[in-house]
Write a structure and sequence with these properties.
By secondary structure, the protein is α/β, with parallel strands linked by helices. It has two domains: 4-118 and 302-340, Medium-chain alcohol dehydrogenases, catalytic domain (Quinone Oxidoreductase, Chain A, domain 1, Alpha-Beta Complex); 128-275, 3-Layer(aba) Sandwich (Rossmann fold), CATH 3.40.50.720. Helices cover 29% and strands 24% of the residues. It is built from twelve helices and 16 strands. Strands 3, 5, 6, 7, 8, 15 and 16 form a seven-stranded mixed β-sheet that branches. It has a six-stranded parallel β-sheet with strand order 11-10-9-12-13-14, with helices on both faces. Strands 2-1-4 form a three-stranded antiparallel β-sheet. Helix 11 (312-320) links the parallel strand 15 (306-307) and strand 16 (329-331). Helix 2 crosses helix 11, helix 4 (128-139) packs across helix 5 (156-167) and helix 4 (128-139) packs across helix 10. The chain is globular, with a radius of gyration of 21 Å. The relative contact order is 0.15.
């Protein structure tokens, strides 16, 4: 590839498609201690992408024009002066907010992640899978022999979290929104799958798991969050990993304060934001990649094909509509000449 393109957020608003455009740029030059990376695949984080366009990411002020996308895998295209640990052609992963949706980026050597191969499966693990491990272990105090519930359980984050909880020897309840997702979750050892379009979550929990949820990992929020809080067990922990149902401005919540439901059970609600746990990411990443190599965790990549930066908006909408099965990945490799003929 001899050109460089990138997706830029040029205005603020609720639509990623309307707020972004593809712009031509020169290929950057690696300086001292830097590496030029050519992207092969980019991971899609639709909720984060939309929140960026709304300037509702607390730790990042969005002042257009600004880059979009977070994680990518590819290869080292060039190295700058002083770089000794990397060679041209080495496979590499990069996680940098604002730099994912582009063909090339220059990155400080210290921020590069060494990987066995630049594949879509790696993007299912880095950083989404790593976040799942950290949320469960560092915040949720994942143990064994407990009842663990995961929402959005067949998504990029949830698919790894679900397997990690099963792997640890827990009774796992997985919530999803389609029969295809339910079938996959059953195939990885989930004890109870709740397909919420067929079974009301509130009714299932009230009947089968009343105040029995020891650990919950929720990225949905809204009424789902309220239902989960009501069914926490004594000493139960609910880890908030996002709130997709509340990503746009919503009506004021007027229900009783949450401490009235937590106090008598000595339960807790805890927040997880991955960048707050960055120092724990390297060992978690190593442990997760080892589990994948051993076959105890599967990398789940959405089967729908997205190719080129022009498909990113489609991919974001695919995720926001809840249609994805696993991690959504966009192929940024140049199309072979034979496919163009």
């Amino acid at each position: 590839m001899t050109i460089n393109q990138q997706i830029i957020i040029h205005t603020l608003g609720p639509s990623f498609r309307a707020c972004t455009r593809i712009e031509q740029a020169s290929i950057p030059v690696a300086g001292k201690g830097e590496v030029l990376v050519r992207h092969h695949f980019a991971g899609v984080n639709g909720v984060y992408d939309q929140m960026m366009c709304l300037d509702r990411v607390e730790h990042t002020r969005v002042v257009p024009p600004v880059g979009a996308g977070v994680e990518a895998v590819g290869e080292v295209a060039a190295i700058g002066p002083g770089v000794t640990d990397w060679q041209v052609g080495d496979p590499v992963a990069v996680v940098r907010a604002g730099f994912g949706y582009r063909h090339y980026q220059v990155c400080p050597e210290v921020e590069l992640i060494r990987i066995p191969a630049a594949t879509p499966e790696i993007l299912a693990m880095i950083p989404s899978g790593v976040s799942a491990v950290l949320a469960l272990e560092r915040v949720g105090e994942l143990g064994t022999g407990e009842t663990v519930l995961i929402t959005a359980a067949a998504g990029g984050l949830g698919s790894v979290a679900t397997q990690w909880a099963v792997r640890a020897g827990n009774h796992v309840v997985a919530v999803c929104g389609s029969d295809v997702k339910a079938q996959w979750l059953a195939s990885v050892g989930v004890n109870r799958v709740i397909q919420y379009r067929r079974e009301p979550l509130e009714s299932v929990l009230a009947k089968e798991y009343p105040e029995r949820l020891d650990l919950v990992m929720d990225s949905v929020g809204g009424p789902v969050f309220d239902t989960l809080v009501r069914n926490l067990a004594p000493h139960g922990r609910l880890v908030v990993c996002g709130y997709t149902s509340d990503r746009l401005p919503t009506a004021e919540v007027t229900s009783e304060r949450i401490y009235t439901q937590l106090y008598w059970k000595a339960a807790s609600v805890r927040g997880f934001m991955n960048y707050r746990f960055a120092r724990y990411a390297p060992p978690a990443r190593q442990k997760l990649l080892q589990a994948c190599a051993e076959g105890s965790v599967q990398a789940l990549v959405d089967p729908r094909s997205f190719r080129g930066l022009e498909s990113v908006a489609d991919a974001v909408e695919h995720l926001l509509e809840g249609n994805n099965l696993g991690k959504i990945v966009v192929d940024l490799r140049p199309i072979p000449v034979a496919e163009n003929q």
